[in-house]
Amino acid sequence: MTNTLTEGDAVAAWGELETALPVSVQSPRRYYHPLAEAADTFVAEAQDSDRIFTGQPEFDAEMRGIGRGMLCMVQGYSHSGKTQWLLQLLRHNKTKRICLFIPDEPAPLVLSKLASVESNIPAKELEARIAINDQESIRLLKAIATDEFPNLAVFDQPLSAESMNGAYDEMCDVWGDEPQLVIVDYVDLVQVGDQVGSKFEFLKAFCSKRKVPLVALHQTSRSAGRDGQKMKIDSGNYGGETFATFVIGVRRLKAGLEAEREDLLPRVRKGSEQAADRLAEVEYDLRIHQYTMTVNLVKNKRPGGSLVDDIDMEIDQQSGRLYALNGELPSQFRDDARKLRERTMSPPPVEYTQESF
Length: 357
Fold this sequence. Notes:
Strand order of the largest sheet: 3-2-4-5-1-6-7-8-9
Helix content: 40-55%
Number of strands: 9
Largest sheet: 9 strands, mixed
CATH architecture of the domain at 50-253 and 293-313: 3-Layer(aba) Sandwich
CATH superfamily of the domain at 50-253 and 293-313: P-loop containing nucleotide triphosphate hydrolases
Strand content: 5-15%
Structural class: alpha/beta
Distance between the termini: 148 Å
């Protein structure tokens, strides 16, 4: 009698055979990877000479650079100094191939800020010179774009997943190589999902797939960052801290002092001597911290790396350049204090009378 093999029997037999085959000849693995592959990945990262350093010595000593596929979040309240910190990062990585995605700020404005910080010429003065067609200032502006930041690509279009991937691929063609850093300013402008967590999830997937360091500026929630409050790991408005390898906090002590002054004024008006004494201290501190911003390293997943507590920096009010204070008072405050002393200590004007002659 002839045995007839039906189609169903063939499918079942093949399934049994496939199950019995060694893993190496089955379908490609989706989840499992030998731990030895992690060793190779770690060696490659440890030997990576393209890690991105911030230019903040205290941070760089502990972070040891932002590596490929790593996400660094820079968080702070509105007008807390995030842009000033970003400009410092760009100045410290002038020759790197950088894609800067900044939908709410046109490229000419980005360049003007960079030019002022780089040249240390006050922004108003530089603009005024260019407005009257001062050729030296125009040459300076163009030289900064072409010579100082030759590999900075600024994208000020709406930030969708399609545009971000498309711009990245374009720059690979322009440079003939991969970007070395991607910057997103700021996360809420990413047009992926409705929640902050989903936007960060996309950014983390992007930098992991592209094997590129990514720095994302993020504005904290109104409650977490107001009044100059110290940045914490949970200040990032739900989700970003989960995906980040590093979290850097930026704040202005000035904001907290201004809030305290508003609280003290009603008590001073009611005659409280204690409030009046404290108000005098607050007013003095405000004169100092109108020139400062404070940064700290809130999260650091680098093995053996530590967190870094508050570091005060001086912001040049005219150019936006940052200076390390190292425990000293801001130079602009010292200049103000000197001018005030000169005014108060100057001799009174001479009053001439008839007898003087």
